[in-house]
TrEMBL record, chain A:
The keyword Transmembrane applies. The chain crosses the membrane at residues 20-40, 81-100, 121-150, 156-178, 190-208, 237-258, 296-321, 341-361, 394-415, 435-454, 466-487, 507-527. It comes from Actinokineospora diospyrosa. The keyword Isomerase does not apply. Keywords: Membrane, Transmembrane, Transmembrane helix. This is ABC-2 type transport system permease protein. It comes from the Bacteria.
TrEMBL record, chain B:
CDD domains: ABC_DR_subfamily_A. The lineage of its organism: Bacteria, Bacillati, Actinomycetota, Actinomycetes, Pseudonocardiales. This is ABC-2 type transport system ATP-binding protein. The keyword Disulfide bond does not apply. It is a peripheral membrane protein. Residues 5-230 form the ABC transporter domain. It is found in: Cell membrane. Keywords: Antibiotic resistance, ATP-binding, Nucleotide-binding, Transport. GO terms for molecular function: ATP binding.
Length: 533, 299
């Protein structure tokens, strides 16, 4: 039996299990760039508008932090490569990581691979199957991106340079995930290590792209390669070969690691825990803290990094938008009516509010997953009351967003204030505007608590639907011209904009908070009365 | 003797399914009470009602003198529960879970904890996900047995334990009884029930079908008689409680309800008994009879 015996059945099993999620990823990632070429032509119809966009953003390092370097924005191809290059690279990286981990370490983690391993399956079969599925999908995405752009009338050479370079990034992260799957016992940590590498690659790219004197740093990051290939500008197609070379080298490491460990075990030994519980683990709140702290810390770090980056960009935002009236109009409708920078900051703060709502729902739904896993039963069979137990988790859904919005507000206010040379005013302004998002976030948290209490089976799907509707209405409702009555459904629409020149009205904050309190109270009351399990 | 658990006419429905259909249960303080029934009979549902996790639709339930739904938090200070399939938090060590559950119940006897860890041969430093099923069960057992409480509620606690650990468990339960604690033990393992339980209740399809001491229950089952007589038997088959009679000349074989044993033996002696073997009833027969009856009834 050779090491890869049984790979083909495993690939078919993987495709069968991923028959829904795989096509979604492939379609979403591959249709975006080709489909927005016409948007470019609408937003920047004239040569003059394109030239001014080129002059405004091409020289703005704070724009390059987020989107990457703009080599030539005067053609739809160059604009698409700049606008989507680094984001598609980021998402294909995530796709590759999740796919490889799902079919390698996650299978071992759950014990299913052991069942298969006792059948005729070679030692390298699972790794090969995961790598083949993620790698082939990456190549398919790359080819479809190129085909879509060619279909929109862009040059073939540039389209394939971009598409294949993005596929190459996918291949590199496929290989990286192949390595991280060997390191730890848990799929959650395998994903964690691989996404940390992805995050580091994003920071390297942001650093290199925004620092003209050290632009070579970008070449260290696979996320920068699609743009460094200069599609539609210089068409450096060999970047794809670079990616393949790196992917093969990294994958070789993964294959070398496989025989060094047992099935189910990681190369990094799982550390034993303490034999006794610390003092902090003596109450439902202590348990909730133990279960939720990792997620809260991770979210805080992420929003601080994002806040600092967005804040640093804010001052140069005028350059990004250029002279296009339409873009200005969209920005203003989304954010507010005063100056572009304030509109931008307002939009960013609104974005953090929505992220806060996502966190709040995730924290509240921990109750449901604890109940489904029968952990809740074990705790509620002790001298812990239901309200006490639910309250411990809801504390994170209510107070976690306070931490997140304070952290993101401080980080973006600090970064923006330092760059604008107006620290004290910008800091209080941004922090205040951030905190004003809280009542809207609490409404969402309250709805999640109510669903959990009254309709537990619908809690997960229902809560995420509520978040999606609230976010989409607030983000895209004004842009597509929905009526105010429809927009009013979203709590985020009612958050007052804290901008100079706008009168600050606190009333909505009070009644939003009131709605949230009623929802949480109703959630706890219904939870007290229902069956557990 | 006071009553630790008293349930009468308990009804619980899930949608259209009637999981409990007028169930009665009475557990005296200080006894080990076996709770038996085929899969799906309603044992776990009863236990979850007793723990205040489910709300009963009808019937009265008293647990340690309180109402298990209304006084749940207070009552839970005085009891410990071990489910049949223990699920542990993946990132907490076994020792942490033992301490956590013990503290949430209101305290843990540290010496007993150490003693139990040793007897169950359990490594408390492993993380939840790395324990086997049997070891997860041990974590919950140690947490329950080391808690300072009056009532232990076990729902098939030994599933996944090896025979050695099962005997450690039986030893522990006997110690608990000697210390005056009450134990409600839902189980499928007849040997376990036979050695541990003072009284048992058998339930089927959400109703109690038998309850009493093992001696009383044995009385309800049949004794197998095989005899060689001086003359052919007459009228044996017509006697009350006699079943499956086989007559071969002077030999006769039959089963008789144990309460009618006396009448049957009298009839035999009338024909003159040359030799006699009697096989006492086993619990297996009793349980099988109840379990199989349900399958017949379900058809």
């Amino acid at each position: 039996m050779s090491g890869i015996t049984g790979t083909w059945p495993l690939i078919r099993l993987a495709l069968r299990r991923d028959r829904v999620i795989l096509p979604i990823w492939i379609v979403v990632l591959s249709v975006i760039p080709g489909s927005t070429v016409s948007a470019y032509e609408q937003l920047y119809p004239t040569a003059a508008a394109r030239a001014s966009l080129n002059a405004g953003t091409g020289s703005n390092p704070s724009v390059a932090v987020l989107y990457g370097p703009a080599f030539d924005l005067s053609t739809p191809g160059g604009w698409s490569a700049w606008r989507y290059g680094s984001f598609l690279a980021l998402f294909i990286g995530l796709f590759a990581i999740f796919t490889v981990t799902r079919h390698t370490r996650a299978e071992e983690d759950s014990g299913r691979l052991e069942l298969l391993g006792s059948a005729v399956v070679g030692r390298y079969a699972a790794l090969t199957a995961g790598v083949v599925v993620a790698g082939a999908s990456s190549l398919l995405i790359g080819v479809l991106i190129a085909a879509g752009m060619v279909g929109s009338g862009l040059p073939v050479a540039g389209a394939f340079t971009l598409g294949l370079a993005i596929a190459g990034t996918g291949l590199v992260f496929t290989a990286i995930a192949g390595v991280t799957a060997q390191l730890t016992e848990y799929s959650r940590s395998a994903n964690g290590v691989a996404t940390t590498v992805l995050g580091a690659a994003f920071l390297l790219r942001a650093l290199g792209d925004s620092t003209p004197s050290a632009s070579w740093v970008s070449w260290l990051s696979p996320l920068a390669w699609p743009q460094q290939a200069k599609p539609f500008v210089a068409d450096k197609w060999w970047v794809f070969l670079l990616a393949i070379g790196v992917a093969v080298a990294v994958a070789t490491v993964a294959y070398r690691l496989v025989p060094l460990r047992d099935i189910g075990a990681g190369l990094w030994p799982s550390r034993p825990g303490p034999a006794t519980a610390p003092k902090s683990l003596s109450s439902p709140l202590g348990l909730a803290w133990r279960l939720q702290r990792g997620s809260l810390v991770g979210w805080t770090v992420a929003v601080v990094a994002m806040g600092a980056m967005f804040g640093a960009i804010a001052d140069g935002i005028g350059g990004l938008v250029g002279d296009s009236e339409q873009v200005k109009q969209i920005m203003e409708r989304m954010g507010g009516t005063q100056g572009l920078v304030d509109a931008y900051l307002s939009a960013i703060i609104g974005l953090f509010g929505m992220l806060g709502a996502v966190y709040a729902v995730q924290a509240a739904l921990r109750m449901r997953s604890e109940e489904v896993a029968t952990h809740a039963e074990s705790v509620l069979a002790t001298a812990v009351g239901r309200v006490q137990w639910a309250g411990s988790h809801l504390a994170f859904a209510v107070l976690g967003p306070v931490v997140l919005l304070a952290a993101s507000g401080l980080a973006s206010g600090l970064a923006h204030g330092l760059r604008a040379g107006d620290l004290s005013h910008q800091l209080t302004h941004t922090l205040g505007a951030s905190m004003a998002q809280l009542p809207a976030v609490w409404v969402i948290a309250g709805i999640a608590a109510l669903l959990h209490g009254a309709w537990p089976r619908l809690a997960v799907a229902g809560s995420w639907t509520v978040v999606a509707v609230a976010v989409l209405l607030a983000l895209y409702g004004p842009v597509i011209g929905l009526t105010q009555a429809v927009l009013d459904v979203s709590p985020f629409v009612h958050v007052p904009k804290l901008q100079p020149g706008t009168e600050f009205v606190a009333t909505p904050l009070f009644w939003l908070t009131g709605v949230a309190v009623v929802a949480v109270a109703a959630g706890l009351t219904t939870f007290r009365r229902r069956d557990i399990g | 003797m006071t009553t630790a658990i008293s349930v009468s006419g308990l009804v619980k429905t899930f949608g259209r399914t009637r999981a409990l259909d007028g169930l009665d249960l009475s557990v005296e303080t200080g006894e080990v009470h076996g709770f038996l029934g085929p899969n799906g009979a309603g044992k776990s549902t009863t236990i979850r009602v007793l723990l205040g996790l489910l709300r009963a639709d009808a019937g009265t339930t008293t647990l340690l003198g309180g109402d298990p739904w209304r006084d749940a938090t207070e009552l839970h200070r005085r009891l410990a529960y071990v489910p049949g399939d223990v699920s542990l938090w993946p990132n907490l060590s076994g020792g942490e879970v033992i301490d956590l559950l013990g503290r949430l119940r209101g305290g843990l006897d540290q010496r007993r904890r150490a003693d139990l860890l040793e007897r169950f041969d359990l490594d408390p430093r492993k993380k939840g996900r790395t324990y086997s099923k049997g070891n997860r069960q041990k974590v919950a057992l140690v947490a329950a047995l080391a808690s300072d409480i009056e009532l232990l509620v076990f729902d098939e606690p030994t599933s996944g334990l090896d025979p050695l650990m099962e005997s450690v468990f039986q030893e522990c339960v006997r110690e608990e009884r000697d210390r005056g604690r009450t134990v409600l033990l839902s189980s499928h393992i007849l040997a376990e029930v036979e050695t541990l339980c003072d009284r048992v209740s058998i339930i089927r399809a959400g109703k109690t079908v038998e309850t009493g001491t093992l001696a009383e229950l044995r009385h309800l089952t049949r004794t197998s008689i095989s005899a060689e007589l001086a003359s052919p038997p007459n009228g044996i088959a017509q006697l009350p409680g006699v079943h499956d009679v086989v007559v071969e000349g002077n030999r006769v074989k039959f089963d008789v309800d144990t309460r009618e044993l006396d009448t049957a033996l009298r009839a035999l002696t009338e024909s003159g008994v040359r030799s006699l073997t009697s096989q006492p009833p086993t619990l297996e027969e009793l349980f099988l009879r109840h379990y199989q009856d349900e399958q017949v009834g379900a058809r």
